[in-house]
């Protein structure tokens, strides 16, 4: 049931504060300010050599964000690849590593094959899934459910937010187990997570501004998305969402890669969405942004108040609430979802059932 919404996608975007809250309630002991996981996990974060993540599409981008988190907060090396490559790449696997697959449907053929491949080579395998009765959930050694509820829109939105929520909790648990995070640091990260639903409610208030940009996006033939650090996977996700539902060609790049090729595409007809919360990478991204501006590119900057003040005059700015950099990718995700949604609505495409796409991809 779409309720009062025009599309399932709109409803699912709006539900994100609530479903992130549900997911957090499952993984966080609110009274103690600590992550709680089952006592009988079939692996131990403390003794892991590495984590090998595989997933497809949007779920893969969740894994890309998580790589930064596991490396930074738990000092675990992470391998990550799209599942369709991972299974044929023949990476040397070792039994001290943990395989981690991420899938909304739990039925994606390539992701399932990666899971089986890792388990056959003696690795323990964990799965983050939204459908508890799915094949991937049944086969994995450990299942970490996302509590997004059924996702009907083909373009994944709330499932990604919940995947990130679970991954954030796992990274914190790993950081504690490995003695990287102090109790105080853990509590700080948990506080940031607990504030997230409220921050996203605030982000949703700029929906009107984003709707007003739809017309100009709809005229573009190409759109670029740029970000650094954990904003880079957000850029990839923004580009994928726009392609999927509006059929406008879009690409996401690590901001530092711009000058290695894609800058050749920039002219006054190309909107460039820059995702840059005011963190330790902000200055660097801004200098990439100035290179775009100098070539006439139309900049749409997603940042917080401080970032907006420092980048004044740069183009259109979408101001999101300031947050701990840990959760910033989840805050910045929402505007890129809304850009894709409103552009597609403006263009009159079938938002919930985009052409050529299926909700669950059960063939290679
Ligand atoms: C994008 C999208 C797809 C899926 C991908 C994996 O909006 O929905 O890219 O993320 O097909 O699907 P799951 O998560 O079901 O394995």
From TrEMBL:
Source organism, top-level taxon: Bacteria
Active site: 359
Keywords per UniProt: Aminotransferase, Cytoplasm, Glutamine amidotransferase, Repeat, Transferase
Example of a GO cellular component annotation carried by this entry: cytosol
Domain (SIS): residue spans on this chain: 41-180, 213-354
Keyword Ion transport attributed: no
Cellular location(s): Cytoplasm
EC number: 2.6.1.16
Listed GO MF terms: carbohydrate derivative binding; glutamine-fructose-6-phosphate transaminase (isomerizing) activity
GO biological process, one term: amino sugar biosynthetic process
Catalytic activity, as annotated: D-fructose 6-phosphate + L-glutamine = D-glucosamine 6-phosphate + L-glutamate
Function recorded in the entry: Catalyzes the first step in hexosamine metabolism, converting fructose-6P into glucosamine-6P using glutamine as a nitrogen source.
Subunit structure, as described in the record: Homodimer.
Protein name: Glutamine--fructose-6-phosphate aminotransferase [isomerizing]
Gene (UniProt): glmS
Shown residues within the full chain: 244 to 607 of 607
């Amino acid at each position: 049931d779409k309720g009062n919404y025009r599309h399932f996608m709109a409803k699912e975007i709006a539900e994100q504060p609530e479903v992130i809250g549900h997911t957090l309630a499952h993984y966080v002991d609110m009274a103690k300010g600590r992550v709680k996981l089952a006592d009988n996990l079939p692996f131990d974060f403390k003794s892991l050599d590495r984590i090998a993540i595989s997933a497809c599409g949007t779920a893969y981008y969740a894994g890309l964000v998580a790589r930064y988190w596991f490396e930074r907060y738990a000092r675990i090396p992470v391998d990550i690849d799209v599942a369709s490559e991972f299974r044929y790449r023949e990476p040397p696997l070792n039994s001290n590593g943990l395989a981690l697959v991420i899938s909304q449907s739990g039925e994606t053929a390539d992701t399932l094959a990666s899971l089986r491949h890792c388990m056959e080579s003696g690795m323990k395998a964990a799965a983050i899934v939204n459908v508890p009765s799915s094949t991937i959930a049944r086969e994995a050694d450990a299942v970490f459910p996302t509590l997004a509820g059924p996702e009907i829109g083909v373009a994944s939105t709330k499932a990604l937010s919940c995947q990130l929520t679970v991954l954030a909790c796992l990274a914190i648990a790993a950081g504690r187990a490995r003695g990287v995070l102090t109790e105080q640091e853990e509590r700080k990260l948990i506080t940031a997570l607990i504030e997230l639903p409220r921050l996203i409610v605030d982000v949703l208030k700029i929906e009107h501004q984003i709707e007003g940009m739809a017309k100009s996006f709809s005229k573009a033939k190409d759109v670029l998305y740029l970000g650094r650090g954990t904003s880079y996977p957000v850029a990839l996700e923004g580009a994928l969402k726009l392609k999927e539902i509006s059929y406008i060609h879009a690409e996401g790049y690590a901001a530092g890669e711009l000058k290695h090729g894609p800058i050749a595409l920039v002219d006054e007809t190309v909107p460039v969405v820059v995702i840059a919360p005011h963190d330790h990478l902000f200055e660097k991204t801004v200098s990439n942004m100035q290179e775009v501006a100098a070539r006439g590119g139309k900049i749409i900057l997603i940042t917080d108040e401080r970032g907006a003040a420092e980048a004044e005059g740069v183009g259109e700015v979408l101001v999101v609430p300031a947050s701990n950099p840990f959760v910033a990718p989840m805050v910045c995700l929402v505007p890129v979802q809304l850009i894709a949604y409103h552009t597609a609505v403006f263009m009159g495409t079938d938002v919930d059932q985009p052409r050529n796409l299926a909700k669950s991809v059960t063939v290679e």
